[in-house]
Design a protein that fits this description.
Pfam families: WHD_CHMP7_1st. This protein is α+β, with helices and mostly antiparallel strands. The protein has helices spanning about 15-20, 30-55, 60-65, 85-95, 105-110, 120-135, 150-160, 165-175, and strands at about 55-60, 70, 75-80, 115-120, 145-150, 180-185, 190-195, 205-210, 210-215. Helices cover about 45% and strands about 15% of the residues.
C-alpha cells in the first residue's frame, strides 16, 4: 500500500526554507553543518517523494518545478538553487544513476537539467513489488508457467506506475534484463514472467525463448 506524501513541517518556515533554497556556497570542509543540512534535506525529500509515488526516473528541471515555493511578502516563487549540487552529490555516492549512453555523453548527462536520472533503490524496490503484484493479482494462463494476457499486464503496469517516465523505464528494464518476455505469435498477445530477485546490475540474465534460454545483456545504469 502506498503512503501519502507530505512536505516536512519546516516547509512552512519562510526563513528556513529560503536558506535551504540557496546554493551551497562553502564546501563540507569549511562548513560541514550547512553542507550536510542542505544535502540531507533535499536528498530525503526526493527519496520520500519517489517512495510515495513510485517514481524511479527524475530530472533536475522536474524536481525544481515540483519543489518550487512561494515566499512573502511579494509572492516570489523560488526553486531550490542548490538542487544541481545535491543531485551531483547523489551521483557521486551512488544513490542516483545515469542511464547508459555512449562515451562522453554519459559522463556529462548528470550536468544537463533535462537529463533523466535513475533512483536505483527505488527501481529495484518497485520493480520487485510490481512483479510480485502480477503473480498475486492476475490469473496465469498456465498451471506450470507464469503466463498472462498482455492487456492485463499493461493495465497493471499503468495502475502501479502512474508516473509515465518511470513506467516506461521499468518496462524497458524488465524486458531487456529478461524478467518478462512478450509473445505475439499466438492468437492472444501474452507475456511470460520470470520470478527472480531483481538486480539491475547483473551483467547477464537468462531469458526464456521457446524451450531454450539465451543470454541477454542488461542495462547498466552508470
Amino acid at each position: 500500500m502506498q503512503t501519502s506524501f507530505a512536505l516536512p513541517p519546516i516547509w512552512q518556515n519562510d526563513d528556513e526554507m529560503y536558506r535551504l533554497m540557496q546554493r551551497i556556497k562553502r564546501p563540507r570542509e569549511i562548513d560541514p553543518t550547512g553542507f550536510e543540512q542542505k544535502i540531507s534535506f533535499w536528498s530525503n525529500l526526493i527519496e520520500d517523494y519517489a517512495n510515495c509515488h513510485r517514481v524511479v526516473v527524475v530530472s533536475e528541471n522536474a524536481l525544481k518545478k515540483l519543489f518550487s515555493r512561494t515566499f512573502p511578502p511579494d509572492g516570489a516563487v523560488l526553486s531550490p538553487d542548490c538542487l544541481h549540487q545535491v543531485l551531483n552529490y547523489k551521483l557521486e555516492n551512488g544513490t542516483l544513476k545515469i542511464p547508459e549512453m555512449d562515451g562522453l555523453i554519459s559522463k556529462l548527462a548528470g550536468l544537463i537539467p533535462d537529463a533523466d536520472l535513475i533512483l536505483p533503490n527505488a527501481l529495484q524496490k518497485f520493480s520487485e513489488e510490481f512483479r510480485r503484484s502480477i503473480v498475486s493479482d492476475l490469473e496465469s494462463l498456465s498451471p506450470e508457467h507464469l503466463v498472462y494476457i498482455y492487456e492485463d499486464y499493461e493495465k497493471a503496469l499503468s495502475n502501479f506506475f502512474t508516473h509515465e517516465l518511470s513506467r516506461s523505464f521499468v518496462e524497458q528494464t524488465l524486458l531487456k534484463e529478461g524478467y518478462i518476455r512478450i509473445e505475439s505469435s499466438s492468437d492472444i498477445k501474452v507475456f511470460f514472467l520470470k520470478m527472480l530477485t531483481f538486480n539491475p546490475y547483473l551483467q547477464h540474465c537468462n531469458v526464456y525463448a521457446g524451450a531454450s534460454k539465451i543470454e541477454t545483456p542488461v542495462i547498466h545504469l552508470a
